[in-house]
TrEMBL record:
Belongs to the globin family. The gene is ghbA1. InterPro entries: Erythrocruorin, Globin, Globin-like_sf, Globin/Proto, Haemoglobin_extracell, Mb-like_M. It comes from Lamellibrachia satsuma. Gene3D superfamilies: Globins. Heme b binds at H111. This is Extracellular globin.
Amino acid sequence: MKSLIILLGFVACAFATDCGMLQRIKVKQQWASVYSSGIAREDFGEAIWKAVFALAPQARALFKRVGGDDVHSPAFKAHIARVNGGLDMAISLLDNDATLKAELNHLNGQHKERGIPSNYYDVFIRALHAVVPAALGRCFDHSAWDACCDVIVEGIRH
């Protein structure tokens, strides 16, 4: 009996760290809540990039072409909108594997073209994991976001 309980515990842990359909739906719902619209969307995007540059100040050098030295500049705000648009699309496609894979392949090509080292994907996710919970509060499902962000990052990184 104890063995069965331990086995069920391991199975529960394995499913809890998976980006299964329930986790994908939860991440999509939570993303829709924080991504918002208008000025709130701009502020949210700016907060992510401030967090990125706080975590990795040297990353600014990768964004000279788009005004990375000033997150408030129109050029960088346009960059933020493009990145968040790509992230929005990836999150929206979490429940459509074939189309998600095609989108992540596209993003992989864009990042390779621009010479973005893949370690910065992890920095971006760390920044996202700082900003999203601040917007959602205690409703943030850290394990669902971890698992589903891994799907996205690994798809871009491959």
